[in-house]
Amino acid sequence: MSMRIGFLGGTGIEGRGLALRFAHAGVPVAIGSRSADRALAAAAEYNRVLGSETIRGLVNQEMIRNSDLVFLTLPHDQASAALDAVRADLPAGLVLVDVTVPMRFTEGRAEYVEPPEGSNAEALARRLSPAVDLVGAFKTIPAHVMGELGTALDCDVFVCGDSPAARERAMEAARLVPGLRPLDAGPLAAARTLERMTVLAVNLNRRYKRKGARYRIQGI
Amino acid sequence: MSMRIGFLGGTGIEGRGLALRFAHAGVPVAIGSRSADRALAAAAEYNRVLGSETIRGLVNQEMIRNSDLVFLTLPHDQASAALDAVRADLPAGLVLVDVTVPMRFTEGRAEYVEPPEGSNAEALARRLSPAVDLVGAFKTIPAHVMGELGTALDCDVFVCGDSPAARERAMEAARLVPGLRPLDAGPLAAARTLERMTVLAVNLNRRYKRKGARYRIQGI
Hints:
The structure is a homodimer. Chain A is of the alpha/beta class.
């Protein structure tokens, strides 16, 4: 089964790190943007880092048509609007992977901003037709570390979602990247835990003056 | 600074694992119970496992007088009542370490039972005088693994609490056990994350048919 990976909002730091890692692993990657120019510019920059012409830049609609799995890599407060703008273009069976985490900084600490739906993943899922499967995954891995291709990841990717088949597709994607191990975290509501874990990792980074805190499960 | 460790509710599986690990590391340990007989019976059983007479069994009040740090190792729904019963006996400056996690099982999955206060640690803290410091820690480490002295722990202990000094004391305690690394998780409200992480680990154990899922932070 082919695995072409697209990015809705791939021009930011989250999209950059993931796109680089997947492309580096030989996976076909397309960066999407509302603007073809911005998509092309981002793809060109990423390709310079890779030293090859492997990443394409496309407008969102075209990116979606050319992807089996689309990452939602926007700031959490822009994700809903971006999703609404492409909703009509999302084909049935598409797997959307939400990596967003709603947080704010107060007195030097990151704080989780709990959405009324329980998690941002659940909030976004409500905006979609039931034919599109949303998965929450890759939330806990710092974009900074993803983007440093020389750094061994050596960590776990927690995958949650209400469709077991969609979870499996996201886990397949994670397996394509060296150093990542996917773990099935169950229903989408597990995003309540995963999103908070990201906030904890951000605070650990601040306290210990590091940038790459990420999770590994021992015993599995 | 001495570190004598006591257990309020030390006759259950959580208390057993922690008591064995600390005693094995040479730390003075006292098991507390409302009943001297039950405390003595548990201590005798643990000492048989250890092959030495290092753990004492005491009634709760006496255990508290002989401890610098007291673990609250009761089922989450008994912790409040147990705390209320000894509240008058808790000296100022005592560090209480809450390891409880409120969860229930529904259709084969563990679910977090969110307390109105946000976490069980915060709920328990409200029952205490401000002179007693409550720390949430050791929540994410499976009792099963703690109790298997032959298993290398090789994981992190997340410590949260509103008193930095109390967090430091709990971190000192964690450092006494080989294979445990304490990490400062910040204010007590971080227990909202840690308690959910325990539920996630329980569900990972069930899904992957293991018993010892526990967390290690990479990059710190």
